[in-house]
Amino acid sequence: MKGDVASMTALKRILEDFSAATGLTINFHKSTFVPMHVDATTAAEMAEILGCSVSSFPQTYLGLPLSPHKLKFADYQPLLLSFDRYLAGWKARLLSTGGRIVLVNSVLGSLPIYYMSSILLPKKVVEALDAKRRAFLWTGEERCHGSSCLVAWTGVCQPKEFGGLGVKNLTDMNHCLLLKFVHKLHDPEPLPWKQWFLSHSDLSREAARDSYLGKLISHELRRYQDLTRVRVGTGDRTSFWHDRWLFNTPLCDMFPALYSHVLRRDLTVRAVLDIGLHAQLRP
Q1: What are the angstrom distances between the C-alpha of 244 and each of 168, 197, 204?
Q2: pLDDT score recorded for residue 267
Q3: CB 12 within 8 A of CB 49
Q4: How far apart are CA 33 and CA 30, in angstroms?
Q5: Between the CA of residue 251 and those of 8, 70, 246, 254, what are the distances in Å?
Q6: Residue 47 pLDDT > 70, yes or no?
């Protein structure tokens, strides 16, 4: 909504009509009002009309921190505290190493899944979570020194058939969970968020890559291409430039000058083929 008093008045009237029509009463005292680019005086007047307190980002939305800016390490404290709550209730010293491995995988490895399904966790956050898992596994304490670790953490995260302990690698899990967004973009099911994204975004443009979802998809797209193969049917879902036609390399990487020229001129595929043909026929 617009950041003015008139818009807030109209919103409050709509919400009151909704409550009267459905019987669902809105508790404004448990709601927050987040102004963006609104001066303090106007924000106070708008909050008084709505009947809720003024707040700021990041906001907790569906259990995740929501913010238009890059999240800081402190914004992930709820996730770190969830680890501490579980660890405080476990009698680690009474458990065998095998029992600790089971808890590390089944419980501690599952706690961040909800976060990792929507957010690419910063390296610092992953290191903090791994430090808690590593300390519980080897000593049962909150922290441990390297001398207490019998195996390097990279070896611990290796599968058992390769000599590791089979502990889940959080970074790999995070990327695998985020790949679902790229996979759903290739799925024919008309999801609302996908229709909106495809109608408003073009990953070849810098502005689209600056959005959170655009960054996430462009970052995971290359990994998705390495894991999948394309079978050409009607050609409707075939990418001329980004699919790997020759030598397992996309054409945009093999012919970068031609690709940049196409982006500038917005040429059709037929024109592109003609340009490439004339370029090869030149002496």
Answers
A1: 31, 24, 17
A2: 52
A3: yes
A4: 10
A5: 52, 33, 8, 5
A6: yes
